[in-house]
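Running this now, will post back.
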Amino acid sequence: MPASSSLAPDERLRVLAAQRWRIALTLTAVMIVLYFGFIVLIAYGRSVLAILLAPGLTVGILLGALVIVISWLLTYGYVRWANTRYDVALRELSKTATDAGVIR
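Update: finished.
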């Protein structure tokens, strides 16, 4: 966290929490749009979903599988970000506060 290391620990924690919320809300919004878009397509676009792409594979089956795969990828992206950036920065802040005697 070199860009924000010059900030006070409280401010760095606020920045970190704001980043986490931004990412969580963005990923949630993407998932809601994908899921409800698929549901709306089921409700109003059945003829589109029934298009046969290959024997035994329709557009509906493909899109349903893509919704599941994309949700896995979004989860993977969040977990990777949390493990490589968020948790590291949080540990650094915790160590700084412990070293300063703010927390034990």
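The chain has a mean pLDDT of 91. More later if anyone needs it.
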